[in-house]
Amino acid sequence: MFMGEYAHTIDAKGRVILPADFRQELGVSFVITKGLDKCLFLYGQQAWEELAAKLRALPLAKPEARAIVRFFFSGARTLECDKQGRFLVPANLRAYADITLRQSVVLTGADNRIEVWSKDQWSRYNEEVEPDVTVIAASLAELGI
Q: What residues contact residue 110 under an 8 Å CB cut-off, 6+ apart?
């Protein structure tokens, strides 16, 4: 399980340090893809395979199913960290998440995945969501939350 929030800077070559707490759990090889809310998702191989199986099971005839499959798979890349624990964020994914070179980024644990956010996007997201967390929790009570 991934937990916590870590701030780092993306370097001039598009690399960011993967926190040591995340590295062991994520494994040697992992997948990066477009995430929801203008962030990026990092999945360990097993978690990615589980998500991919669910996406493959969606009915091809439904436009929404095709759209979500395209969304996740078109941006997906398999990555590894270098000896310094850094991984390269591909340019197309940096553009999607509004991450620029030499910018602060935030890596957050989100259970079975890690999310990579531009610091500005993360701040905006929290400003929008935090005031409504109580209302959100109440609306999810029927799901057992």
A: 2
28-60 pLDDT tens trace: 999 999 999 999 999 999 999 999 999 999 999
Helix axes 45-56, 63-74, angle to 10 degrees: 160
Give the model's pLDDT for residue 145. 67
Q: Which residues pair with 105 in a beta bridge?
A: 8, 118
* Residue length of the chain: 145
Provide the token pair at 49.
């395979």
Determine the Cα angle at 36 with ends 110 and 57, to 5°. 90
Given this model, what pLDDT does residue 135 score? 82
Which residues contact residue 54 at a Cβ distance below 8 angstroms, ignoring those fewer than 6 apart? none
